[in-house]
Amino acid sequence: MFTFIILYTKLNYICTIILIKRQMKIQVKTPRVTTADYLDFDFLHRKAERLINYEPKLKTIGVYIAVAMYTGLRYSDLIRLTYEDLDYSNRDFNVVEQKTGKIRTITISKKLRDLLLMVTYRTSNKGLIFLSQKGTPFTNQALNRVLKTVLTEHKNQTNNISTHTLRKSFGRRIWEKNGKSEEGLIYLMDLFNHSSLKITKTYLGITADDRAKLYLSL
For 55-74, what is each residue's pLDDT tens digit? Predict the structure, then answer.
C-alpha cells in the first residue's frame, strides 16, 4: 500500500510537470504577425499599366490594382464599384464603406484617371466593373490568387500578397509622401478608422529601423 502511494505521488508529480510545460509552451508561442505585406507603389503602377495595355485577359485585374492602390479602398467596397461611379468627367465619387457605414469621398488623381482612360471599354459600359470572365463579381479568394501570380516578380515582395496589400501600399505611399511624419500618420489613422497611431504604424509595417532613419536623416 505504501509503495502504491509513492508511485501514485510520483505519477501525479510527473503529470503536473508535463502540464505546466505544455502551458508554458502555449503561452510563449504567439501568432506570427506579418507587417511588411505592402509593395513598392511605383512597381504597382507599372504593373497596372502593363496589364491594362498588354494583357487583355488580365486587363480587369490591372484596373483593380490601379483603383485599389490610388484609393486605399477595401475589397468589399471596390467590388461594388460601377462604371457610373468612375465617371471620368467627375473628379471624385462617394463610397459608403461596407465595414464602417461611413460615406467616404474619393478624389480621382490624374495618374489614376490616366490609367483608367487606357481601358478600351471606357464609359460605354454600365454596371459592375470587376467581373470575372463568367460575368460574376470576383471573389476575394480568386483575386488573391491572381494577385499573388502577377505580383511575384518584385524583388522585395512579401509572402502575404492579397487584396489588402494594395490598401497597405496606398497607406505607405501617403506616409512617405508626407515626409514620414506624425501628421501623415494621423491622416491615415482617420482614413483607415484605426483607434490609435500604434495600430496604424503596425498596419503600415513601420519598424524601429524606419524610425531610426528619420533621426539619421537630420
Answer: 989 999 999 999 999 999 99
Rounded Cα distance between 39 and 173, Å, is 10
Global confidence as pTM: 0.75
The three-point CA angle 198-203-103 to 5° equals 95
Hey, what's the cell of 80? 461594388
Task: Give dist(CA 215, CA 218) in Å, integer.
Answer: 6
Q: Give the three-class secondary structure for 135.
A: coil
Q: CA distances (Å), 88 to each of 38, 54, 147, 209, in order?
A: 28, 22, 26, 41
Alpha carbon distance 151, 163 (integer Å): 11
Instruction: Burial-class residue 8 by CB neighbours within 10 Å (0-12, 13-18, 19+).
Output: exposed
- The one-letter amino acid code at 153 reads E
